[in-house]
Amino acid sequence: MIDRKQKLPIWLILVTAFFAILAFIVTSSLIFSPASVLETVDLKAKGVDYLIYMWAARQFSLGFIFAFSLLKKSKEMISLSFLFFLVMNIADVLIGVSQKDNGLMIGALVMCVISSTILYFINKIK
Length: 126
Fold this sequence. Notes:
By secondary structure, the chain is mainly α. The protein is built from five helices and no strands. It has one domain (10-124). Helices cover 79% and strands 0% of the residues. Helix 1 packs antiparallel against helix 3 (48-72), helix 3 runs antiparallel to helix 4 and helix 4 (75-99) packs antiparallel against helix 5.
């Protein structure tokens, strides 16, 4: 079997690690202090805790995907991680549009641009 580990640029390692850590921070915030993230949500309403844990699981999965691709040191896996992130943010844009939430739309669009830019530069790596 051929060892396909590549030498990744330091900027790619740092950016991927940043997104992994950020996802784990959001997960922790959602689990341990949801009021700090969800200021306008009635946390005592029925079913809200279930949705918060689902969101936390989504963020944990995202962090795990980024961290795993870093551990494998694979350009292809990191590309797939950012592609997943791009698709997730496209969905967030659509949710923002349907809910008329400008903050979500703008934030998700910014993350779409960041993801697309990173994917563009990853594909330039030889």
